[in-house]
Design brief:
alpha/beta, Uracil-DNA Glycosylase, subunit E, 5-stranded mixed β-sheet, 5 helices, Uracil-DNA_glycosylase-like, Uracil-DNA_glycosylase-like_sf, pyrimidine-specific mismatch base pair DNA N-glycosylase activity, Mismatch-specific DNA-glycosylase, MUG/TDG
Length: 172
């Protein structure tokens, strides 16, 4: 199955970073395509988008200043199918992308994504005290996977914190 293409550009407000694409995303070629994944619902409910986008519109979010990538590009059934070597290589590739594109915020979609990238043992939700890449603010958000047991209301509140930050940055 082919890797999923990133959606990257200079001047992004947010780069959403996942572990890796699902098999459904691999089949369709679009980020967060599994119907059990709540990503698109969360963006709408938090106000990060004005409507619910569909996975096949993922490239359109570049116009909103939102990009997409993963720490590992290969689609798998689950994160347990990712080899340590893939993470090692993925960390370097991700660091290069962040340094090259310098998004305003790197939003790690899941604590595990952040801890896997940074090597830190723990992370709190929201903005982090230290940035992994100079010039990029790190934000840790809950995973949007349908397997997450955190109440949707709490997940949306965390993503809403990101929206408030972006509105302040834009002077809205």
């Amino acid at each position: 199955m082919p890797d999923i293409n990133d959606h990257l550009d200079d001047g992004l407000s947010v780069l959403f970073i996942g572990f890796n694409p699902s098999l459904r995303s691999g089949e369709t070629g679009h980020h967060y395509a599994n119907p059990r994944n709540n990503f698109w619902r969360i963006l709408e409910a938090s106000g990060l988008t004005s409507r619910r986008y569909a996975p096949w519109e993922d490239g359109d979010l570049l116009k909103l200043g939102y990009g997409f990538t993963n720490i590992v590009a290969r689609p798998t059934r689950g994160v347990e199918d990712i080899a340590r070597e893939e993470y090692r290589a993925g960390r370097e590739i991700l660091r290069t992308k962040l340094s090259r594109y310098l998004p305003g915020v790197a939003c790690y979609v899941g604590k595990g994504v952040y801890t896997e990238f940074t090597g830190r043992k723990k992370a709190s939700w929201g903005f982090q005290k230290e940035s992994e890449v100079d010039g990029v603010i790190d934000f840790v958000a809950p995973s949007s996977s349908g397997l997450v047991r955190m109440p949707m209301r709490e997940i949306v509140e965390i993503y809403t914190e990101l929206r408030f930050y972006l509105e302040d940055e834009r002077g809205e």
